Amino acid sequence: SYYTLDPKKTFVTPEFAMTYSTTGKGGVSRNFHRWARMYKLSHADSDRDILLNSWEGVYFKINEDGMNQMMADIASMGGELFVMDDGWFGDKYPRRTDKTSLGDWVVDRKKLPSGIGGLLENARKNGVKFGIWIEPEMANTTSELYEKHPDWVIGQPNRPLDLSRNQLILDLSNPKVQDFVFGVIDKTLSENPGIAYIKWDCNRFVTNSGSYFLSPEKQSHLWIGYVRGLFSVLDRVRAKYKDVSMMCCSGGGGRIDYGTLPYFDEFWISDNTDALDRIFIQWGTTQFFPSMALASHVSVVPNHITGRIVPLKFRFDVAMSAKLGMDLQPKDMTPEDKEFSKNAIKDYYSIRSIVQFGDLYRLLSPYENKRTAMMYVTEDQNDAVLFTYLLKKSINGNTQPLILEGLDPDKNYRVTELNKETKGYSWFTPLDGKVFSGDYLMKYGLRFTMYNEYDSKVIRITAE
């Protein structure tokens, strides 16, 4: 692959980011996280909203009553934002599966008779913000867009279309396509003032890389042209819609990088929402990317990806270690689970700023231990929160000490368990409410037994 540079033109390579740490990999991570919060994330000085996303709750079965019900449910549990995911659009080709309609960004009035405006009004009545899913860079072959502009997709002449995930990628090296993609976002937001959040999806990677717009000798320019075209669109979106939050989705599209993230508030790393797997996925992701932007959702059991069944508390405790959200159908929850969720969300509010703005310390790796632990500490060292999970049952009990980090050795700290089970005994109870010096916690540590698979604890640590 090569790039031909025209005379008197300048080519600017991507930035190279590096750091140096005298405190190991943890110091490297904290440096990157601080840099990201200062320079590489949109709205990095604002708390991220607790949301309910409709995807795992209803998938493509969007309808007005269902969306209104889900808004009322997340409002009753104390959430701040409802996001309507895929399935709301399509006229000639209504979006009922992933094989049609991408590119035709008009409301399906059979599903939503009152349109997005009606949903916004209901969101206001429920006291929550409203967000919407959109995948503006993509098209299905069964769409009005593709019928009108088959030359707008990435592909190679005389070769069959590669319908990865049943869809094609629009060629953003083409200025007309750039205008179309910007127009999709612009029309959606301008016609529906009040949309607070966009989940911007990118569900596949480039294959059959060829451009019907670029000349034969510049086919190898597609990769750079695409990225420049995308950034041009995002520049236009951000110039006009500064206050709208946006999620960069997904990891499947290979788009979690510090070139793209300045346009976005948060990112989605995987559709695998299984809490056990998420411990490992999030452990790796936070090596370089900050937790305030790492969307982590409580989902249903059996999990739709893995089939695993884990306790609701475990699902919440894992999601609370990053940017908390929910991805399920609340009407299928028991009253007890709804009440637990309400209390868990309330507890998350008390630690949200610590998780989202604090320094991350990884204590016990899930790759090396049956028990894993991590913690966040505020810059002034007055507040911290500890997360610990037992990944496999310990017949005689797991007694690994949690040697804390990042505290002030000269301060005294009170330790308090959050998100407790409503029934049963907590093995942390003998320590709950006790005060220890920072020096003690960083040398002797917190020591309490954990027994059961998927046992989990969230501990607030507050300077006296």
Largest sheet, spatial ordering of strands: 8-7-6-3-2-1-10-9
**Given the C-alpha coordinates, what overall shape results?**
globular
How far apart the termini lie comes to: 61 Å
Order of helices and strands: HEHHEHEEHEHEHEEHEHEHEEEEEHE
Please summarize the sheet with the most strands: 8 strands, parallel
Account of the protein in words:
- By secondary structure, this protein is α/β, with parallel strands linked by helices.
- The protein has helices at residues 24-40, 55-58, 64-76, 115-126, 144-148, 175-191, 222-240, 275-285, 312-319, 335-357, 438-443, and strands at 51-53, 81-84, 129-134, 138-139, 168-169, 195-201, 245-249, 266-268, 295-299, 323-327, 359-364, 371-377, 383-390, 412-418, 435-437, 456-463.
- Strand 12 and strand 13 form a beta hairpin.
- 44% of the residues are buried.
Would you spell out the secondary-structure blueprint of this structure?
Layout: H1 24-40, E1 51-53, H2 55-58, H3 64-76, E2 81-84, H4 115-126, E3 129-134, E4 138-139, H5 144-148, E5 168-169, H6 175-191, E6 195-201, H7 222-240, E7 245-249, E8 266-268, H8 275-285, E9 295-299, H9 312-319, E10 323-327, H10 335-357, E11 359-364, E12 371-377, E13 383-390, E14 412-418, E15 435-437, H11 438-443, E16 456-463
